[in-house]
Amino acid sequence: xxxxxxxxxxxxxxxxxxxxxxxxxxxxxxxxxxxxxxxxxxxxxxxxxxxxxxxxxxxxxxxxxxxxxxxxxxxxxxxxxxxxxxxxxxxxxxxxxxxxxxxxxxxxxxxxxxxxxxxxxxxxxxxxxxxxxxxxxxxxxxxxxxxxxxxxxxxxxxxxxxxxxxxxxxxxxxxxxxxxxxxxxxxxxxxxxxxxxxxxxxxxxxxxxxxxxxxxxxxxxxxxxxxxxxxxxxxxxxxxxxxxxxxxxxxxxxxxxxxxxxxxxxxxxxxxxxxxxxxxxxxxxxxxxxxxxxxxxxxxxxxxxxxxxxxxxxxxxx
Length: 318
Prior knowledge:
- This is Iron ABC transporter substrate-binding protein.
- Residues 1-23 form the signal peptide.
- The protein is α/β, with parallel strands linked by helices.
- Helices cover 34% and strands 12% of the residues.
- The protein has two domains: 17-192, 3-Layer(aba) Sandwich (Rossmann fold), CATH 3.40.50; 195-317, 3-Layer(aba) Sandwich (Rossmann fold).
- The chain has 13 helices and ten strands.
- A hairpin with a 5-residue loop joins strand 7 (200-205) and strand 8.
- The longest helix has 20 residues, at 174-193.
């Protein structure tokens, strides 16, 4: 199941080893995974590397001007103390990133998330452009020869940590990368130690035709089996869960990501409230429905965003 890049298409259609720096502690396995290792392996500066998806990146020097076409890039750069040359994400305006005032100083790439304009991207003279492979991969031919394009495809929190390490290696921000990884791993390990048994669910969408975020293809959801009961698995791009199935699972805490494509016309939970089954879900009945910031929960994907997810989830799951 692909990460959030295909959300717009799915909503429309169904309703929505590397070498070098990538290597880190062994991946967790099992229902909730083994306890998260807080050990952070040293990150070595690199000009060439192969990421976890086999994408080879080679740069003649440390990149100074980086254009971000999706929010994981903005998250990583913020963790490393770098401001992107341009972005098409709203994540930077969040108070735990640059904040609204500083974010307004970062140029926005026109064309939106789905179709950022190539000429506008190149006008910022980037050393590196980072995009989401299954959305922005089609831009590669137009960017070839003018800049280096890095198509990322994060699906779990481990992927996000790997990309953080890779970018830290390429930019020479190795100490910052190690610190960000350590902070995140420590927070996740602490959340694991107080793991509860309340049943949680993350849903996303723009109307009553919603999707369920599952650990196999969603970075935020991949955290949940480690901190609480999260009995949801991927059914592939075409599969989803019905309100009847959700009702049968006795969901105690519900997190809702409202995704709007254009002018917002209400929250997803407000729209789902029109369905009589909605009010019967324990989380709804008991007032444990939490509309969360989709820029962070659905789009951020990086260690800073995921740290915010852990904080907000922990508060809601108490």
